Amino acid sequence: MNDKPEKLIDKKGLRLDGRKADELRPIKLEVGIIPNADGSAYVEHGKNKILAAVYGPREVHPKHLALQDRAVLKCRYHMAPFSVQERKSPAPSRREVELSKVIRESLEPAIFMEYYPRTMIDVFVEVLQADGGTRCASITAAALALADSGIPMKDIVVACAAGKVDDTVVLDLMDAEDKLGAADVPVALMPNQNAVTLLQMDGILTQEEFEKAVNMALEGCRQIYSMQKEALKKKYVNISEEIKEEAEE
Ligand code: ADP
Known about the structure:
Number of strands: 10
Number of helices: 4
Structural class: alpha+beta
CATH superfamily: GHMP Kinase, N-terminal domain
Bound molecules: adenosine-5'-diphosphate
Radius of gyration: 19 Å
Strand content: 25-35%
Helix content: 25-40%
CATH class: Alpha Beta
CATH architecture: 2-Layer Sandwich
Shape: globular
């Protein structure tokens, strides 16, 4: 990592990558890109590049984990060995085990688990490139993949973080801000239910700063939610265009 810059926010109030305090990184969302999976999504969130694939509902393995009245949701968050500058061991780290649990708990409230007793829904998240805020981008990607799979959901889930760098509360921290900043507050939201499914805090904030960060993250979530809707719609526009082209041939 480079030496710590003197200031993470310059005199004009701009951040290391030129963003304003309340500005998201550029985001690109796409669904249906892994045809083998029942649902899939690809997310670019700043320099993060993340794939999510959903399989199921399918038979539970091992069988004794099956629940009689609901489905079992399994999540695996994994960072590719080439996703960060120094090679990351491909074996699951403590952090990846924790993030798998955090992502599962953020998604589960949105899914009608009781519709599929004695089955398992598998969610795989593969981080191809990481640059801070991968848990949030992974939740956004996994929720899109679930929606793409057609599994009935009460709502989609969308996630975004806010935090504090130097003395300013900012939206959507990148890796350098995450490492050198004072705090990071990831939030996941079901936008139509207006229900928060994840709220964590890493670092120290005053109560006022915390409230500001949560509200900023929620606003970020709402912006990403409209991009999720567009990504889902786009898939069906593409399909109808393909059908039209085939009919014309
Ligand atoms: P999040 O990605 O949700 O912010 P963390 O706060 O744990 O989760 O991680 C922050 C960032 O640190 C990651 O997004 C990634 O860029 C970087 N990072 C995580 N694990 C490693 C690792 N093993 N080696 C190098 N960088 C890492």
